[in-house]
């Protein structure tokens, strides 16, 4: 079987993008016959100490999540790419590593993408918020 083609993200800023807009996009290296959904989730308030069911594990829910529009494989909770109501865009990218993947169930990279979009309201907040939220290992 041939290896999957790489996936790439791109962003276009003015003046390359018209009308002062920023354009964000990504191709996908997912299987051709896998259903991809484009889904919108409204902003929501959540009960204290509630959990969110990710693809394989549950994690603590935050008090409030932002509205998001994501593209995702239909079978999983996370997202290939998307944007939230504040214009924060995030996409999943495959990486190569020398460290072996854990054998236990964990968050997928796509789960991190969806969680990040639901919680972040400025790009500056991205790095510390994800570090604090996901200080344990994830797997792709």
Automatic annotation (TrEMBL):
Can you say what this protein is called? Secernin 1
InterPro entries, alphabetically?
A: Peptidase_C69 (IPR005322)
**UniProt feature coiled coil, ranges:** none
Family designation: Belongs to the peptidase C69 family. Secernin subfamily.
Organism source for this protein? Saimiri boliviensis boliviensis
An annotated GO BP: proteolysis
Q: Which GO terms describe its molecular function?
A: cysteine-type exopeptidase activity; dipeptidase activity
Tell me the organism's taxonomic lineage: Eukaryota, Metazoa, Chordata, Craniata, Vertebrata
């Amino acid at each position: 079987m041939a290896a999957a083609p790489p996936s790439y993200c791109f962003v276009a800023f003015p003046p390359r993008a018209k009308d002062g807009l920023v354009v964000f996009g990504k191709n996908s290296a997912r299987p051709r016959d896998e259903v991809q959904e484009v889904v919108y989730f409204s902003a929501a308030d959540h009960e204290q100490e509630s959990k969110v069911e990710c693809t394989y594990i549950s994690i603590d829910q935050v008090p409030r999540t932002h509205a998001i529009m994501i593209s995702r494989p239909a079978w999983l909770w996370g997202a290939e790419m998307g944007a939230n109501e504040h214009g924060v865009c995030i996409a999943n990218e495959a990486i190569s590593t020398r460290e072996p993947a854990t054998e236990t169930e964990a968050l997928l990279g796509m789960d991190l993408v969806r969680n990040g979009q639901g919680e972040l309201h400025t790009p500056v907040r991205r790095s510390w918020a994800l570090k604090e939220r996901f200080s344990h290992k994830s797997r792709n």
